[in-house]
Amino acid sequence: MSGLRGRTLAGLADQALVAVTTAGTGLLGTAVLAPREAGVMLYTIAILVFVQGLGRAFVGDVMLAHVPRYAAGPARRGQFANAHATSGTLAAAAAVVLLLVWALGPRRYVGDLVWGVPFVPSILLQDLARYTYQTEGRQPRALVIDACWVVVQGACLAVLLGTGHAAGGPIVACWGIGATAGAALFYARTRINPLAGRPARWLSDTRRLLGWFTATGVLAQLTTLLIASLVQGILTQAAYSGLRLVQTVVLQPAQSFTMALNGLLVPRASALAGAGDVAGLRRQTRTVLAVNAAIGACIVAVAVPLAHPVLDWYHGGAYAAVAAIALPVSVQAGVYLLQIPFTVAIRGMHRARLLFAQYAIFAVTTLGGLVLGAVQGQLVGAAWGLMAGAGVGTLVQAGMYLAASRAMARAR
Questions:
Q1: How far apart are the first and last CA of the chain?
Q2: Does the pTM exceed 0.90?
Q3: pLDDT surpasses 70 at 45
Q4: Residues with Cβ < 8 Å from 254, sequence gap 6 or more?
Q5: Alpha carbon distances (Å) from 214 to 58, 90, 219, 352
Q6: pLDDT of residue 211 exceeding 70
Q7: What is the DSSP string of 179-232?
Q8: 229, 373 Cβ separation under 8 angstroms
Q9: Which positions ≥6 away from 140 have C-beta within 8 Å?
């Protein structure tokens, strides 16, 4: 039990570190840049996170469910090498595409993107390094490499601020430099060689999971990027800055917590499902649901009363108007937390098609709610539209989990 407790604490601490750092990068932009300039930087980060999400869809999330069923030894190590080779190949292709986007796209949206392009491989591989340790239940080691990333990024940001060169592009580059350091430390410690892996073998070995899991991940990231694009297109870049500011403080910690739970619980759910332990899987789902419900209630209770005084003070009140969206965004965070236990169980049962169907419904309702809300009620309406989409997605996910667990019980 002490080993499990230690891994759990390390996993939560690791994801908290990642959440604080990611949030801090965006907050720094809103603190030192004008709202419009911050919007350009935040959109660049959204694009890079989109690419990072593609890496998770093709490799990271699949790894959590696929590799634990291999015994420790050469077979598992070979799977890791193939996974890292796949991620490296994807990163190289993505860097080329993003360079073209920067060269051909409007500067008012993608002007800072060129600063992040050289670091796309580092960002994807460092992220996969965390997934690799999580897959093996070595959360403390994941915490070490992420701490390396954070320390290096923080040092670079300190130099920028100290020399008066803080701007959107250089802030993005600091993220990339930190990720490079974290990835280098991982490969030095594990001796995994991404150049020795075989992407074709990874695609072959994971094809049963890869199709629907990957499609779900791609759809999720595309939905997030479309939200950023639609808010700027229907409203303004300043409105997007305000939305991202509140999401960064309120919603992103909840999303990062769900990432930590994925890393901790999906391998265990996969093992339970593989052993046919329906009771154990249901027990884990109920426990996590109760804990997450309590956390979600705390988020709403804290975020709503603090929104107005904090935003009236922050950046001289430049973002005071967006305090009105604290309620829908905090409710959305709580709804996401309620969804994660069902998602973990369905991933563990390898019911990837159900995940895709659920996310397709979520994407349609979320984007539809955003557009209708923005047209009718500007930023506040858009925030409520996003919350409504999250609510529909969670209800659908709960229903699918119940159906899948009952089918698993009947098949025993």
A1: 29
A2: no
A3: yes
A4: 295, 296, 299, 333, 334, 336, 337
A5: 5, 13, 8, 9
A6: yes
A7: HHHHHHHHHHHH---TTTS-HHHHHHHTHHHHHHHHHHHHHHHHHHHHHHHHHH
A8: no
A9: 6, 7, 10
- Spatial separation of the C-alpha atoms in residues 281 and 405, rounded to whole Å: 8
Query: Cα separation of 375 and 83, whole Å?
Result: 43
Taking each helix axis from N to C end, the angle separating 120-135 and 2-32, rounded to the nearest 10 degrees, works out to 160
Question: pLDDT, tens digit, for every residue of 380-405?
Answer: 899 999 999 999 999 999 999 998 88
Phi and psi torsions of 185, nearest 5° = -65, -40
Residue with tokens 């759990």: 8
The position carrying tokens 């801090």 is 24
Query: Are the beta carbons of 375 and 233 closer than 8 angstroms?
Result: no
* pLDDT tens readout for residues 17-43: 877 787 778 778 888 888 778 888 888
Q: What are 25's two structure tokens?
A: 């990068």
Give tens-digit pLDDT for 132-141.
998 887 888 9
Report d(CA 130, CA 276) in Å as an integer: 28
Residue 102 is encoded by which pair of tokens? 């920067």
How far apart are alpha carbons 350 and 403 in whole angstroms?
Answer: 14
**Residue pair 345/405 in contact by the 8 Å Cβ criterion:** yes
Are residues 118 and 91 in contact, defined by beta-carbon separation less than 8 angstroms? Answer: no
Name the nearest CA neighbour of 201 among 57, 84, 295, 365: 84
Q: Are 331 and 387 in contact (CB under 8 A)?
A: yes
Whether 174 contacts 163, CB under 8 Å: no
DSSP-based helix, strand, coil % in the chain, nearest 5: 90, 0, 10
Question: CA-to-CA distance for 132 and 293, rounded, in angstroms?
Answer: 29
Cβ atoms of 229 and 278 within 8 Å: the answer is no
CA angle 411, 63, 391 (to 5 degrees): 70
Tokens coding 127: 């992220």
Using CB atoms within 10 A of its CB, is residue 402 exposed (0-12), middle (13-18) or buried (19+)?
Answer: middle
391 in Cβ contact with 254 (< 8 Å): no
In this structure, the dihedral spanned by the alpha carbons of residues 83, 89, 94 and 95, taken in order and rounded to 10 degrees, is 120
The rounded distance, in Å, linking the Cα atoms of 55 and 73 is 25
- The C-alpha angle with vertex 46 and arms to 40 and 50, in degrees rounded to 5, equals 145
